[in-house]
């Protein structure tokens, strides 16, 4: 199978190209930024470029996007051009080329305001049934792109899987308060409890989606590390998250103490990946328990693929008040 990977110079795009190159698949990477994993340089907003790239392609993995860190540096129109028009170009050229499957990388950021509980209320249990309330142009354009994917699947029988991925970037947190209060690895390990996923597990979800696309037709899935929490934990998570974590992982506190780490005092939402595990037969490996076991053994909790791909940033310049500009 010949697979087109958009955004091949980014975190996920590179990881997909790296992985696919070791398989029996032929892969073509495209991006606006040149890299060792990008075969053709150009924009998905350029319809003619997309058309040329689609020759001989059997399936598309569409990871290219403007991200949340770009909200302060890019215009609304640029978000629309890349995230909506770019996706539309790919979908329409897919139909013309007779593509077998389209895998779209979306984001849990689409849930937006739906992820924030009211004061004194339990943490929010985030499943695919939760209705998104986008809170910025990033969320709006990704939600619209998801809807385009569903429309083309329904109206044109294009097998199409939408994967709403949680955080997998290795860069520092975008919130200054979090950066000042927690070491970067401390933050990332904490997030594996409820809102983070390892890059290798994201790649495996995309491969499973490709395998299952024709039989599913259209599906939308949350891709995040498997949470240990249950619905019954939600009230206590907002008031005393460390207590809940200690009950589930009695050894975590001592391990954290040795590293001078700490747990978040409150957790406000929990991503649930049950549908993806069941319908895609996806088996994510890297969760909070895995990270604790790595700490015990003195090894890196990240996958080898995540380490190889490394940190890329989202801008070519540095900013005075943190890794990302705030609008």
Automatic annotation (TrEMBL):
Entry superkingdom: Bacteria
Gene3D superfamilies to which the protein is assigned, alphabetical: NAD(P)-binding Rossmann-like Domain
Domain NAD-dependent epimerase/dehydratase: 3-212
Family annotation (InterPro entries): Epimerase_deHydtase, NAD(P)-bd_dom_sf
Transmembrane segments: none
Family (UniProt): Belongs to the NAD(P)-dependent epimerase/dehydratase family.
Annotated protein name in UniProt: UDP-glucose 4-epimerase
